[in-house]
């Protein structure tokens, strides 16, 4: 598949909710044989429900089971449009705008966006190598005095040059919080570029090459050693908050995080920035549990 497609062409691939369910059912391979009677007779879509029923034994199969859409009463067609809009966006997609575009309530749109971001967090990033820039920043709240971060959330960013990024919300920028994340994300032997923060002081003891830039001495680059790329990522992330979301509330509990999902959305957009919106849509639906390559998107190459 080549090129991008617009929303109008995308909508033509989704003529009805029934078509969406049939394609999802086929994509998961649920209709090959009945799991109960092992009959190979075809299933049919139950009218008014999101399930298929075996013609022989009446066994019912739900293609949305185990996905973020399982307990939702929202039209499956609107779900897929929402996924496409979020992958197509370059600066994030707010719940308020989503509610207007797919014509659902704000509460419904907020939940849909949250679950889509949760699926984005499943995009595994590890084994970053080569030259890796690492930096910490603080998100949310306002400063109370110089270098006061008491009402902000610390965030760690690990960025491979000309590669991918992985961000983490952490309790504090201390070595005990930062080092395990670096060990799990960066391959041994990589050259790590950081600032002079003390949490990075023992990286060489763990098999990394480590160089630091002394920002306090107004040093920003030295022989290719710099953290400008990860700091540029922070700038884009915070601009998307100010321009799209206005503000992000603090996570209420670890099981249902808030900031982490917004970070996952930014990571997903950055890591797949060179791909078409079609490829990003297919990647995200794959994370949710569907392989829609042969069902939803037609060949977009120029004829």
UniProtKB/TrEMBL annotation:
Every ISXO2-like transposase domain range: 127-271
Domain of life (superkingdom): Bacteria
UniProt xrefs under InterPro entries: IS1016-like_transposase (IPR053164), Tnp_ISXO2-like (IPR024445), Transposase_Zn_ribbon (IPR024442)
PANTHER family attached to this UniProt entry: DDE_TNP_IS1595 DOMAIN-CONTAINING PROTEIN, SI:DKEY-17M8.2
Name of this protein: IS1595 family transposase
Native species: Fluviicola chungangensis
